[in-house]
Amino acid sequence: MNKMEIIWAPWRLSYIVKEEEAEKKERETDTELPILPEGDCGCFICQAAVDSDNVTRYVVGSSDKSIAILNRYPYNNGHLLVAPKSHRASLELLTSEERMDLMEQITHWVGVLKQILKPEGFNVGLNLGHVAGAGLPGHLHWHIVPRWNGDTNFMSAIGQAKVIPQSLEALREMILETTNNYPKK
Ligand SMILES: [Zn+2]
Fold first, then answer.
1. Active-site residue, 141 included
2. pTM of the full predicted structure?
3. Which of 56, 67, 89, 126 could make an SS bond with 62 (beta carbons 3.0 to 4.6 A apart)?
């Protein structure tokens, strides 16, 4: 049956999927921040690691050795990045404690997103190197992307745009409330 479907999107089309590269360029080198030893003051993950209370960094939590940040240009609602606090480009440069902590954190954040957003699945992955799609090859980061049935629809397939139903600010608030993780002032 041929019928025209009406799409109601009661939110603004605020987020257009962009390459992480664009995100990297938009974030400026911040020489004022007391970046961790061996960190890079032009790296947004290093900046977030020492400035996690700053709402514009979109940090939702951290452990001793790793940090979780909302992706500013999400592929889907709830797209999180989990990264070591240390600026490391490859797995073998991490300590085994860091690797264990990262796995624990990935597990934790998949659980939090499950609870809050009730996705039907996840893509969890690591892009190693430019050729593999890493926009920030100097600092390892795992992507956690919640998935829903039908989330790859014509908007993303043809329009090359994705509608994300929730602002990053609102999502961060929700996550901080759920994890009881408000920055301590
Ligand atoms: Zn870094």
1. yes
2. 0.79
3. 67
